[in-house]
Amino acid sequence: MSQAKLPYTTGDNNNETVKLQGDPEASVVDLKDTVDMKRITTAVIYYCNITYGISSLFLAPVIVDFRNAYETDMTTISWVFTISRACMLVFFSMYGVIFNHVNRHGLIVALLLITGIMMGVMPYCKTIVAFGIVNIIRLITYAGWATAQAVWVIEIWKEASGPYIQGQHFCFALGAMLPSLIFAPFLKEDQDPQNLLKINETSISPTEFDHNITLTTEESPSLSRLYIPAGICAFLVVLGSIFQLVLFLFVKSSNKKPKNRKLEVAQEDPKSSKGLKSERRIKINLIILASTLVGVCQVMETIAFQFLPAYVIYSNPNLTEVDGAHIMSAHTAAYTLGRFAGIFIIFKLQPKTLLLINILFVVAANVVFTLASGSDSFEMLVGGSALLGIGFSTIIPCVYDYVKMEMTVFCSR
């Protein structure tokens, strides 16, 4: 994996030393003093991954609000998300190249700042076109952080990065819990009993119900009640940009040393041409399989994160937006606890074993959801959401950890 250089990415342990060329005064430099900086850098990465989780699930609790405000249907909203994700996918593939030609750390600061600003202005969008454009910009910019953070911790801690990878993804899960908790107090608690009685009498479908009853607090749909929670989420993301800026400036000032120093790389014994081709083929197959697994998991996670609350509201007219937010909280809480447990479980289980356990949980969750679709059981929806959260929790970090064990992640600049 070729990525641009980020600060403090050398070192496998606390007592590491490296030979430097070009400085007769100091041919060997003890890197113990960089360990604290590694930990600070890791802490900043962890906080920004919390904001990554916030941004990923930012709209999940309030999709119905935007649908009602723009007086459209869920199909149109779904198309907005699909187009936005397609643009995000294009930039995912581009950032790997972009980061090799620009200062990655400096660009991250700008991308996080733009992401936060876009989150703050979304409730002020008056049309669905403006909403779509702002959402595309938001996803494109936070895709930059998603690309950068994937290997940053591996670059810092190398062979010791296993639990740090789990911790990195735990912070994402922690952030994924926050949008539902932040938005829930601003959502309407109960629907109008008269309207519910009218539904029962006329036996209209949940979709018709949603067209006739607004879930906002005013008679006409309005997003004004989302200004405060959206502002809180935006502030947390902008704060991550500020932390990255402080770290960037500190690293830049501390790196003002002779530029002719170069790391002396140990030369490996040459291998036969046949052996190199075989190893290259194995690595290519591993990259393809790992990318496919991560991609499939990302698709399933995105669907669950974005549409689980809307699914709850549409599947049962007796449930409110707050119920949807609570079910989403159960999903993200289980997701977070699973990732927290993964930090310790990874010391006992191989990544491939933990990966298999996760897949079994995902299968079990889908069975529960299938059974819940034929009933109005709120408890089954909560249970299925929790099982799904546990199943998704450590799939991606396990894939990264396994690939790290089989391949070397290095900096190209």
From TrEMBL:
Keywords: Membrane, Transmembrane, Transmembrane helix
Protein name, per record: Uncharacterized protein
Upper lineage: Eukaryota, Metazoa, Ecdysozoa, Arthropoda, Hexapoda
Domain of life according to the entry: Eukaryota
Entry GO MF terms: transmembrane transporter activity
Residues that span the membrane, as ranges: 44-64, 76-99, 106-124, 136-157, 169-187, 226-251, 284-308, 328-347, 354-374, 380-403
Organism: Allacma fusca
Pfam families for the chain: MFS_1
